[in-house]
Amino acid sequence: MKSWLIDMDGVLVHEGTALPGAAEFLGKLEEKGMPHLILTNNSIFTTRDLSERLKTSGLEVPPERIWTSALSTARFLAQQSDSRRAFVVGEAGLTTALYEEGFVMTAADPEFVVLGETRTYSFEQITTAIRLIQRGARFIATNPDATGPSADGDLPATGAVAAMIEKATGRSPFFLGKPNPVMLRNGLNRIEAHSEETSIVGDRMDTDIIAGVEAGLTTYLVLTGSTAREDIAKFPFRPDHVLDSIADLIDHL
Fold it and tell me: How far apart are CA 204 and CA 224, in angstroms?
């Protein structure tokens, strides 16, 4: 049975509005009993928050069908740490995920500095993060996306802020969201799927598609998000399929 990993922003929704075909695609997956999971690099919101936001847009997706870069980060760090102490720059999605893995959020001798998505970056927080990394804390970031979408155009995202901290410290972050295969393995394990029987649907060549290529998944690029058709040639790899929108995927099920 075919399994599916599906990106959220730019594939299912755009600026809080469901994209054409998204509801029908998800409905057909449920109707056919096909294992699937929504994978998102968004670390701002908890899965319950995201489920509610999708519901508002007209899409019924229970929290257990969603896996975020925040959850991937927290799960990985819990396996890497004994002290479970972290200084966190991020929102509820990230702090909740770390809390549920037993972490204490502190600026006092943390083992990790964890950077996630937020709309309220402060100079003070970033300065603290830089100094803690300089003292030996390990630098972790939820995802490498340099920009995020808004109604008025691109916003600086986690990757852009991580670059600033890297420039100041000389230390590169370890990213746990897409395209890190850790996040895809998390997703495959959650739906008990194997890579050779799974497809990934995304709108970004530099996160969704490369992650699928490296993990051996069938890749579908949709052009309703961050990538235009002419952008594909800029990358040294190709998706297996390029579609105008997720509506064109319904017949592939």
Answer: 10
